[in-house]
């Protein structure tokens, strides 16, 4: 490999390159930018998870309505949401059960918990909800329960 004259000069020049102060300034600037990005992105992620839970609840609610139209009743609390993806054991009912179920698979909430279902519901004919980020009843903010009832009411 051939070294050109200006390359050779740069290698031997004691003033060439970056000083420690210059490197530290660049690292601090990168740190500040990373902090700003994290502060602005994390709340968006929390909002997205809440919106995904609301969309899942809406999808489950629609599947339950289709179940009711097919069988003239909602599934019992004991049957749960599983009946939306698994045909009943009763051959007479299984004959009316659609191929592939009422939904392809039961979703899990964004915090990897199962959605809850109860009939009769506290807020309507039935309630479907996620316990939110904390996985417990109640809560505020991202820990609040997310269900098919009026979002202004608390569970």
List its traits:
155 residues
Can you describe this structure?
- With 155 residues, the protein is mainly alpha-helical.
- It has a domain at 50-147: 2-Layer Sandwich (Glycoprotein, Type 4 Pilin), CATH 3.30.700.10.
- It contains three helices and three strands; from the N terminus they run H-H-H-E-E-E.
- It has a three-stranded antiparallel sheet, with helices on one face.
- Strand 1 and strand 2 form a beta hairpin.
- It starts with a helix and ends in an 8-residue tail after the last strand.
- The model has no long low-confidence stretch (mean pLDDT 83).
Strand content: 5-15%
On the 0 to 100 scale, the average pLDDT is 83
Show unreliable segments: none
Question: What's the name of the CATH homologous superfamily of the domain at 50-147?
Answer: Glycoprotein, Type 4 Pilin
**Oligomerization:** single chain
List the helices and strands and how they pair.
Elements: H1 5-12, H2 20-71, H3 91-94, E1 116-118, E2 127-130, E3 146-147
Antiparallel strand pairs: 1-2, 2-3
Describe, in short, the structure shown.
The protein has 155 residues and is mainly alpha-helical. The protein has three helices and three strands. Strands 1-2-3 form a three-stranded antiparallel β-sheet, with helices on one face.
């Amino acid at each position: 490999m051939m070294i050109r004259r200006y390359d050779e000069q740069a290698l031997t020049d004691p003033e060439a390159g970056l000083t420690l102060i210059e490197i530290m300034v660049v690292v601090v600037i990168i740190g500040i930018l990373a902090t700003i990005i994290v502060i602005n992105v994390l709340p968006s992620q929390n909002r997205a998870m809440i919106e995904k839970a609301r969309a899942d609840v809406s999808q489950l609610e629609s599947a339950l309505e289709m179940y009711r139209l097919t069988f003239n009743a909602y599934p019992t609390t004991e049957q749960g949401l599983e009946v939306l993806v698994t045909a009943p054991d009763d051959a007479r009912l299984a004959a009316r059960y659609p191929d592939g179920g009422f939904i392809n698979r039961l979703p899990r909430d964004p915090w990897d918990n199962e959605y809850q279902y109860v009939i009769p519901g506290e807020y309507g004919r039935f309630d479907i909800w996620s316990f939110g980020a904390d996985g417990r009843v109640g809560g505020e903010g991202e820990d609040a329960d997310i269900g098919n009832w009026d979002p202004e009411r608390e569970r």
